Amino acid sequence: MDEDARVADAGDVHEGETLLFTVRDADGELAEAFCTRLSDGTVVAYRNYCQHWTDVRLDKGDGARVTNGEVWCRKHGATFQLDTGVCDFGPCEGSVMESVDVTVADGGMYLNDEEYALEHLGPSGVDGGDGGDSRIDFTGN
Ligand code: FES
């Protein structure tokens, strides 16, 4: 595998939590993604934004909330199945998270998506790290 695409040691990707990393797309724009491990040991990754309000990050840098194989959006409570990416509850029910292709090999987890190049492990630092998630919704949250 290309060591420039090595995101993390595979042993650092755990079930029940997310690991945030930053990629660069073909236009040179930075984007965030998170990876996690499913109960069957499979490692999956998705772009780090909610399908409801796309400026809301699921992992705000301290790990997303993950329970029972689902990642939660802390803004309005949408839940997304981590094995399929499908939102099964919330205002964006039926939508699908944007997957990012990753591969586990040689003890590492590698970005393996021709749309992206690995930038670094951790947040992008764009928008001061809050991802522009400063809107106030109708509930005042
Ligand atoms: S912004 Fe995620 S559920 Fe509304």
UniProtKB/TrEMBL annotation:
Annotated keywords: 2Fe-2S, Iron, Iron-sulfur, Metal-binding
What's one GO MF term for it? metal ion binding
Which residue ranges does the record annotate as region Disordered?
122-141
Pfam families, per this entry? Rieske
Q: Which PROSITE patterns match?
A: RIESKE
Compositional bias ranges of the Basic and acidic residues kind: 132-141
Pinpoint the Rieske domain residues. Answer: 10-111
Under SUPFAM superfamilies, the record lists: ISP domain
Check the record and name the Gene3D superfamilies matching this protein. Answer: Rieske [2Fe-2S] iron-sulphur domain (2.102.10.10)
Quote the InterPro entries the UniProt record gives: Rieske_2Fe-2S, Rieske_2Fe-2S_sf
Q: Which domain of life is it from?
A: Archaea
Q: What is this protein called?
A: Rieske 2Fe-2S domain-containing protein
Q: Which organism is it from?
A: Halobaculum magnesiiphilum
Source species taxonomy: Archaea, Methanobacteriati, Methanobacteriota, Stenosarchaea group, Halobacteria
